[in-house]
Amino acid sequence: MQGGHWGIAMRWPVLIFVLLTAGCAVMTPEQCEYADWMEIGERDGRDGRASDYIATRAKACRKAGIAPDATAYRIGWDRGVAWYCTPDQGFQDGYDGRAYGRICPAPLEPDFLSAYGVGYEIYRARVARDAEDRMIQSIEATLADPGDRTEQQIRDLERDLDLRRVQVRRLERELGILEGQASAMGYRIRY
Question: CA 96, CA 59: separation in Å to the nearest integer?
């Protein structure tokens, strides 16, 4: 039955399953029992998980006496990986600092990795800038209440503070250049 109330009612277990398992590594016995393995495989592929992630799911389902449908899972996973292994997703994963699990098929991997590298350079510069900002805040707090620090220690802290501020400006310029290049390549920068 396709439409009507019956069609909606049949989709509720799948919807509930998707909501409950979003981001979860293990499955409950109930989730295993009502699993749409093709959909689960597709979601795992879209999330950049390796195809052998089904073993983690199988282990959880084994406790309930249920074996996953590996064929359906693989069909879904192949679909998900085709969605995942795009330059846009590669850029986004690099930009967010996510690790790449080497799951893209050979024809798709070069473009994915090229875009990943562009995104990762922005991530790396952003993390370095943020670390310097935190150090600046820490030094400023120390200088605001120097306690029993000597004049020399205070001068050393002030020099360190100046050097870190120069480093932040350099990193800000680098970020601007990298983000401009990424934008010119068609990648969307989130702030």
Answer: 30
Mean pLDDT per segment of 10 residues, for the chain of length 191 residues? Answer: 41 40 64 94 95 93 92 97 97 96 96 97 98 98 95 97 98 97 92 70
Same domain, yes or no: 65 and 131? no
Report pLDDT for 10.
39
Asked if residue 77 and residue 10 are part of one domain, the reply reads yes
- The number of folded domains in the chain is 2
Domain coverage including residue 64: 4-84
Q: Which amino acid is at 168?
A: V
Taking the model in full, what pTM does it have? 0.76
Long-range pairs, 183-190, Cβ under 8 A, ≥24: 185/115, 185/118, 187/88, 187/91, 187/95, 187/115, 187/118, 187/119, 189/95, 189/122, 190/95
Comparing C-alpha atoms, which of 191, 160, 161, 152 is closest to residue 175?
A: 191
